[in-house]
């Protein structure tokens, strides 16, 4: 049951941080990715000198014990879950079976969740056993709670933070938006057990972040660059981290964060528990897992082949660039009934131009892209979430890590460059079991991904327009320039 926090004791008086900080040349800025973190001392960890910590909190519920392996495997098959590793625990079908303490269970029930999502059913016992794990699952599958709730149970079994201690749980995320969402879940579920958290990311002044870190927080959710800033200036340290999460690992590598991630992990004791989450499993991510995880479980939801959510009706029209806006406007007139829609474009300039055209046609559109200030992005997102503006025009980079519930429609005004991004984009509608519709405008410029697109459509039982087959066969050359210019 709810019980008494971090089992007393304490971590040898928690000596005063990294030799009194002293700052790192006042944040001289402008480091390239690979130079970043050059001020961090390599730590040669001697495990015999470190306090021992507990990481196995799993108690198998009698109902789970009673289930046969055949029943467990049948359940996994029906939920498209594949597993690798030795000593894999059986999934838990209900919150009660997950051996969550009362304080966690109460919060979960308050939020109106009836039963765990498939990734939680299989992921919780794995994480609670204290083992390293890789979870491969699309966004919107409930993965945030799959790593957060076991993290909170882990925290509650450790000695309280002393002055100068850094966090116990560290979550690395690729973007500010994703970090802020994870923080939202932490606030919701950590409140009753007084677990403090803070979010650390670039693009905003450091003051508040520094204050939180100096006061001591159990959970830090961070983008890699800004975390390194705070480590170099001695504001915090990672000596007490025993539970490390890398969320959207594939995106972090795409964005060039690998050198920073390696520097950060070097600052964390090697006998920690590490959980890595990714929407895809390219060999770069696998390499990272091999370097950072030991004897890990791997759990995959859905196939590793790129597949689109079958709850999404995928429409594709083959068009000329100059005709795209008219076709899109016709489609919105027919299909748009005021629900939430995200329209993807390739460039920032394209986003602004399309938003202007849509507004002139009376649609409530707002744009979000990398040139907008953080305040503007936050405002547009808040309006979109609250339903005050229902049409969001976005570039891929701006949409990464965006978690907006109840998006019913996705429009690919400009096709993405690859099939992975296509699946990622349309996966933003039809989440949490709802159905959605996606419309994609396929121009000659996108011809090289035609075959892959056809495979995705067929696999999801969708209609393949004959014009798309013809375009894919011809593998067409570069199409005529669009009037939505390519501006950077």
Mean pLDDT: 83
Strands ordered across the widest β-sheet: 1-8-2-7-6-3-5-4
Cα radius of gyration in angstroms: 24 Å
CATH topology assignment of the largest domain: Rossmann fold
The SS-based structural class is: alpha/beta
Strand content: 5-15%
Q: How many separate structural domains?
A: 2
Broad shape: globular
Q: What gap, in angstroms, lies between the N and C termini?
A: 55 Å
Low-confidence stretches are: 1-32, 476-488
CATH evolutionary superfamily of the largest domain = P-loop containing nucleotide triphosphate hydrolases
Tally of helical runs: 18
GO molecular function: ATP binding; hydrolase activity; nucleic acid binding; RNA helicase activity
Motif (Q motif): 93-121
Keywords: ATP-binding, Helicase, Hydrolase, Nucleotide-binding
EC number: 3.6.4.13
Task: Note the topology.
Layout: H1 62-66, H2 69-78, E1 81-84, H3 102-110, H4 118-128, E2 133-136, H5 143-156, E3 169-172, H6 176-190, E4 197-200, H7 207-215, E5 219-222, H8 224-232, E6 243-246, H9 249-254, H10 258-266, E7 273-278, H11 283-292, E8 297-301, E9 312-318, H12 324-335, E10 340-344, H13 348-360, E11 365-368, H14 374-386, E12 391-394, H15 396-399, E13 407-412, H16 419-426, E14 436-442, H17 450-459, H18 466-474
Parallel strand pairs: 2-7, 2-8, 3-5, 3-6, 4-5, 6-7, 9-14, 10-12, 10-13, 11-12, 13-14
Antiparallel strand pairs: 1-8
Helix pairs in contact: 4-5, 5-6, 8-10
């Amino acid at each position: 049951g709810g019980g008494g926090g971090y089992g007393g004791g304490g971590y040898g008086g928690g000596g005063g941080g990294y030799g009194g900080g002293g700052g790192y040349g006042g944040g001289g800025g402008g480091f390239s990715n690979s130079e970043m973190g050059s001020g961090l001392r390599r730590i040669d960890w001697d495990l015999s000198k470190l306090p021992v910590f507990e990481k196995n909190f799993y108690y198998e519920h009698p109902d789970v014990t009673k289930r046969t392996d055949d029943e467990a495997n049948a359940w996994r098959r029906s939920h498209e879950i594949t597993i690798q590793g030795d000593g894999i625990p059986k999934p838990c079908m209900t919150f009660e079976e997950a051996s969550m303490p009362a304080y966690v269970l109460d919060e979960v029930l308050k939020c109106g969740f009836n039963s765990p999502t498939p990734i939680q059913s299989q992921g919780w016992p794995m994480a609670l056993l204290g083992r390293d794990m890789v979870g491969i699952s699309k966004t919107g599958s409930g993965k945030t709670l799959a790593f957060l709730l076991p993290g909170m149970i882990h925290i509650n079994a450790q000695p309280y933070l002393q002055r100068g201690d850094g966090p116990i749980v560290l979550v690395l995320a690729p973007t500010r938006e994703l970090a802020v969402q994870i923080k939202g879940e932490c606030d919701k579920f950590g409140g009753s057990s007084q677990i403090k958290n803070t979010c650390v990311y670039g693009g905003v002044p450091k003051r508040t972040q520094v204050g939180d870190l100096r006061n001591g927080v159990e959970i830090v959710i961070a983008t890699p660059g800004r975390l390194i800033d705070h480590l170099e200036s001695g504001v915090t340290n990672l000596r007490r981290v025993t539970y490390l999460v890398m969320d959207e690992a594939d995106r972090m590598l795409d964005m060039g964060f690998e050198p920073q991630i390696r520097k950060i992990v070097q600052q964390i004791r090697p006998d920690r528990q590490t959980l890595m989450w990714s929407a895809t499993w390219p060999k770069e991510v696998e390499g990272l897992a091999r370097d950072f995880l030991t004897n890990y479980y791997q759990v995959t939801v859905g196939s590793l082949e790129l597949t689109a959510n079958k709850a999404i009706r995928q429409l594709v029209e083959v068009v000329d660039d100059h005709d795209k806006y008219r076709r899109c406007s016709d489609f919105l007139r027919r299909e748009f009934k005021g629900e939430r829609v995200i329209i993807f474009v390739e460039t920032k300039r394209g986003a602004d131009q399309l938003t202007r055209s849509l507004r002139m046609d009376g649609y409530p559109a707002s744009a979000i892209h990398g040139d907008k200030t953080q305040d503007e992005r936050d405002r547009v997102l808040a309006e979109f979430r609250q339903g005050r503006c229902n049409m969001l025009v976005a570039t891929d980079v701006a949409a990464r890590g965006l978690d907006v519930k109840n998006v019913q429609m996705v429009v690919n005004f400009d096709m993405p460059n690859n099939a992975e991004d296509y699946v990622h984009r349309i996966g933003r509608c039809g989440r949490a079991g709802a159905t959605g519709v996606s419309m994609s405008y396929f121009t000659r410029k996108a011809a090289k991904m035609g075959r892959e697109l056809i495979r995705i459509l067929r696999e999801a039982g969708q209609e393949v327009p004959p014009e798309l087959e013809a375009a894919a066969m011809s593998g067409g050359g570069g199409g005529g320039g669009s009037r939505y210019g390519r501006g950077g």
